[in-house]
Design brief:
With 158 residues, the chain is mainly β. The chain has one domain. 8% of the residues lie in helices and 47% in strands. The strands form 2 sheets. The protein has a 9-stranded antiparallel sheet, covered by helices on one side. The chain is globular. The two termini are 22 Å apart.
Length: 158
C-alpha cells in the first residue's frame, strides 16, 4: 500500500541577548503552518518562481489564539515588522527552509506573545504562526536587547 510522507512542519527559535551579548532567554518550539502557506506552495508549483511573493517578514504581537486558517496576528505591535535577513536550505536537508531575522537593540521594546512569518509587507498573508497559548512564547525585549529568530519550515520528511 502506498503511503504519502509529505507534510509541512514549522519550528521557531528565539534567542534574546542583553547589551553585552549574553543570552538572557532562549526558546524553541513547533508552530502552526497556515492554510495560506499550503496554498502558496501549490501556487508556486503551478506558476514557478515569478508567480509568488517570497516569505520575507516577521511580525510580532501581544495577542494569542490564531490558528491555521488565520492570515494575521491577533494583536500586532504596529512598529515591530522586520525583514528577513536570510533564507536558506539547511545543510543536507534541502527540503527545509530556514529563515533568519534579528531585532536590534533600540528597536521594538515590548513583551512578545505571538509571532508570524509573512510574505510581502501586507499584513493579511501570514504563512506560519507561534504564540504563548500553543508554545509558551513570552519574550520581554528591553531597549538594549537583541532578538535573533531562526524559523524552520520542513516540507516532507527530513
Amino acid at each position: 500500500m502506498y503511503k504519502d510522507s509529505l507534510d509541512m512542519r514549522g519550528h521557531v527559535k528565539y534567542d534574546l541577548f542583553d547589551e553585552f551579548g549574553n543570552i538572557k532567554q532562549s526558546f524553541e518550539t513547533a508552530n502552526t503552518v497556515t492554510e495560506l502557506h499550503d496554498a502558496v506552495i501549490a501556487q508556486q508549483a503551478r506558476l514557478g518562481e515569478s508567480g509568488v511573493t517570497v516569505i520575507g517578514w516577521i511580525d510580532f504581537g501581544t495577542g494569542t489564539g490564531q490558528g491555521s486558517s488565520d492570515t494575521t496576528l491577533d494583536t500586532v505591535i504596529t512598529e515591530a515588522r522586520i525583514g528577513v535577513s536570510k533564507a536558506t536550505a539547511a545543510g543536507g536537508d534541502d527540503n527545509d527552509l530556514v529563515v533568519y531575522a534579528t531585532v536590534a537593540a533600540g528597536e521594538y521594546t515590548a513583551t512578545i506573545n505571538e509571532a508570524g512569518l509573512f510574505r510581502g509587507k501586507r499584513t493579511a498573508n501570514m504563512m506560519c504562526y507561534d504564540d504563548n497559548s500553543a508554545s509558551g512564547l513570552n519574550i520581554n525585549k528591553g531597549a538594549t536587547d537583541t532578538l535573533a529568530i531562526t524559523w524552520t519550515i520542513t516540507y516532507g520528511s527530513s
